[in-house]
Amino acid sequence: MKASYNWLKEYLNLENTTPEQLADQITLTGIEVDSLIVPGEGLKKLVVGEVRSVERMEGSDHLNITQVDVGEAELYQIVCGAPNVAKNQKVVVALPGARLPGNFKIKKSKLRGHVSNGMICSLDELGFSDSVIPKRTEDGIYTLPEEAIVGEEALSYLGLDDIIIDLDITPNRADAMSMRGVAYEVGTILSQKPDFKEMSLSENADESIENYVDVSVESKQDTPYYKLRIVKDVTVKESPLWLQRKLMNAGIRPIDSVVDVTNYIMLEYGQPLHAFDYDALDSKEIYVRRANQDEKIITLDGQERILNQENLVVTNGQQPVALAGVMGGQNSHVTQTTKTVAIESAVFASSLIRKTAQSLNLRSESSSRFERGLNLGTVEAALDHAAALIAEISEGQIVSGIAEIESTDPLEKRVSITLERINHVLGTRLSLEEVASVFARLQFEYTLTEDKFTVSVPLRRWDISIEADLLEEVARVYGYNNIPSTLPVMESTPGELDDKQRLTRFIHRFLEGSGLAQTISYALTTPEKAKRFSLKRSATTNLDWPMSEEHQTLRLSLISGLVDNAAYNAARQAKNIALYEVGHVFYDNQTGTLPLEEEHVAGLLSGDLAEKTWSDSAKPVDFYSLKGIVEELLETIGIKETIQYVATSSFDDLHPGRTAAIYLGEKKIGLIGQIHPQVTHLFDLEDTYVFELNIDALVKAEKNSVLYEAIPKYPGTSRDIALLVQESVSHKEVMNVIKSNGGKWLQQVRLFDLYQGEHIQPGKKSIAYSLAYLNPEATLKEEEVNKDFEKVKEALQKDLDAEIR
Q1: What does the DSSP assignment read for 390-451?
Q2: pTM of the shown model
Q3: Nearest one of 389, 387, 11, 8 to 196, comparing CA atoms
Q4: Residue 138 annotated as part of some ligand binding site
Q5: What is the pLDDT of residue 634?
Q6: d(CA 447, CA 455)
Q7: How many C-alpha atoms does 451 have within 13 Å on its Cβ side?
Q8: Which of 289, 400, 527, 737 is the most exposed place for a label (fewest CB within 10 A)?
Q9: CATH of domain 2-39+163-190
Q10: What's the number of CA atoms in the CB half-sphere (13 Å) around residue 743?
Q11: Does position 189 have pLDDT exceeding 90, yes or no?
């Protein structure tokens, strides 16, 4: 909202308050001032001139030699190229030495041998935006009215001596989207009551509106108030300068004497109006209804709009003549030939106007006010004021009466609050007199019973309805900076991390220490991606109103997001990719309420584990590269229960021969495996390996106690064994047999060789293990180790039909 300082001076005494001071005080009371705009900043030596003669310059198709009276003894000769310059015009003249926007200095000069003592200015040369310049002067100079005094400073005539306070209005303070609303706010700050001039309305008693039009609405929920006045015998012409000046400083382009009045009233009252060419309506009926599906209207901007049943239209009983609350129709707008004007003042449902503006991408000054709500107390007053102004400026007559729908008169809300409550919430020690003065400054009537204020909230402040709203009013008017700062009194509780927070932080540090970079993905994805890599079967959770098709379903796994991130990096030539993410997945809890959330961690490796150097070749990542990271993570956490990796082919998007489910005892807590080659090809990735673990399950798992162990004093020993087994025998089966028969001194078992090929029977493989033995309390005897080692060999031969080599 652009509030004119000079306009405010019409309502209030601002002699002792500068615009800068006023802006600061407005900000302190809760409405932010974005900036102070000084339209005439830097401009000087601009005067009113009168063109005494115009002569076409020889040899030029557009230049004119003018003689201009600027209030001095002699006329000024000025060369002017404007196509609309004419004799006896009052114009704005920049004298030699004048400065224009952009620090452009006017000098005495010669054009084609002719002296030019200054410049006759157009509005754009004076700094006005193209969007506010009247159409008649778009390509030429701007002419001043006859009453402009030659030789006077021209800034005041154009409003360039004004200062514009640009207010950032929050949705709850829509009352400040009008000059009267801003005046009440400033009056509160300065302890003044705004003085609004009484409006004089003179109706033509010989004419009754019943003979012109009848209004009705389809739904009073959509249109609770609708009023119409008729002004006949108008002459549509250019608006007076004072009106154009106010519109341009507010950022609105002047159009004509009818439309400009409706815009002026919208700025003053905050009540949008619309003017119809009564004869173009071709009907004595106005009917407001919902649009039919795919109904069409051509709006004032010349665009054809296809409507739906959430759009509200004003019709002549048959066809739409306006898009209610947003924009008028081209088939009924006021033109230079209009003789009778129908002026509409109404209240439309905010939600419908908002939906219409959004769906049609058609926002206007009018729709922005309807969306936020209107002052129900000025719907008729704004209409009467507009009719009076149009009749005065356009020399028309007001038909007696108002065509309107039946509606109840709006009532002021009554809200109560006690002094004790105010002081308790604000931490103040205000007296009854101080609070009463706040309500008096706000122009709120009230009654006082003991320490209880019962406030009658005026209709112009429809944002106030509950006790908390009154509290806010008292706080901001009293002054936020006057409210004492106090610390809350309570028992202090030392903060600490819970088990889950501690484990999650450890996982972050461990994975980053292992070379993985953290990513953060959207929890919302497509239905197809949401189902991929899920640890357990679950229905997906879909949003009713998603942001987009790509963000409509809550994920069941973190891996799909990591794959997208890996593909993004690979597309930008980052081939060696190591990523992880900690986040929530969402399972259907089958109760129809909110989904069940679990916190998971997932990781991804792709490309080379080590880059090629002068001494070593590149080493691509494989299943065991990632498995080593996961094993070390789980081992470092200290999980007491056995962790098992069980081969599985149940995941469609993972390699069926290189995927394992991770079990904690009998419970599945994760997975690890290679992304299926078909999937990696689709994403243009190299061989890619992923894992995912349920953090919640890891938190609940029993942990081993961390105990200090001294470095052994006594030496250990080792034994190597090579086996020939069936190709179907897994490493896990061999490890289980060795550990269960290795004896109490067996400390570690390590696979160090695997061979299949020449000299090995088909269907078999050769594997070799190293077994380390240690007695931390004594030196091991050879006989003890040999005895345990023999038991291992016998068990391998018996249980796995292994051939010891």
Answers
A1: HHHHTT-EEEES-EE---PPP--EEEEEEHHHHHHHHT----HHHHHHHHHHTT-EEEEETT
A2: 0.67
A3: 11
A4: no
A5: 92
A6: 7
A7: 10
A8: 527
A9: 3.30.56.10
A10: 19
A11: yes
Separation in Å, CA 794 to CA 592, 746, 750: 58, 16, 19
Three-state DSSP class for residue 738: helix
pLDDT tens digit sequence for 448-477: 998 899 999 999 999 999 999 999 999 999
Q: What is the average per-residue pLDDT within 726-750?
A: 90
Q: Phi/psi of residue 301, each to 5°?
A: -80, 5
d(CA 246, CA 158): 9
Q: Hey, what are 768's tokens?
A: 């070799």
pLDDT in tens, 318-355: 999 999 999 999 999 999 999 999 999 999 999 999 99
Q: What is the pLDDT of residue 671?
A: 95
Q: Residue 449 contacts by C-beta under 8 Å, 6 or more apart in sequence? A: none
Give the architecture-level CATH label for domain 717-804. 2-Layer Sandwich (3.30)
Domain 415-482: state its class: alpha beta
The answer to the question of whether 139 is labelled as a binding residue is: no
Whether residue 764 has pLDDT greater than 70: yes
Which amino acid, 605? L
162 is in an annotated binding site: no
What's the whole-number mean pLDDT along residues 162-177?
Answer: 92
Span between the terminal Cα atoms of the chain, in Å: 91
What are the tens digits of pLDDT across the range 481-516?
A: 898 887 777 777 778 888 999 999 999 999 999 999
Is 32 annotated in a binding site? The answer is no
Give the single-character DSSP code of 153. Answer: B
Q: What is the CATH number of domain 499-700?
A: 3.30.930.10
- Sequence-distant (≥ 6) Cβ neighbours of residue 160 within 8 angstroms: 39, 40, 43, 46, 126, 127, 154
Contact 123/142 with Cβ under 8 angstroms? yes
702 vs 704: CA distance, rounded Å = 7
Task: Check residue 51 and give its pLDDT.
Answer: 93
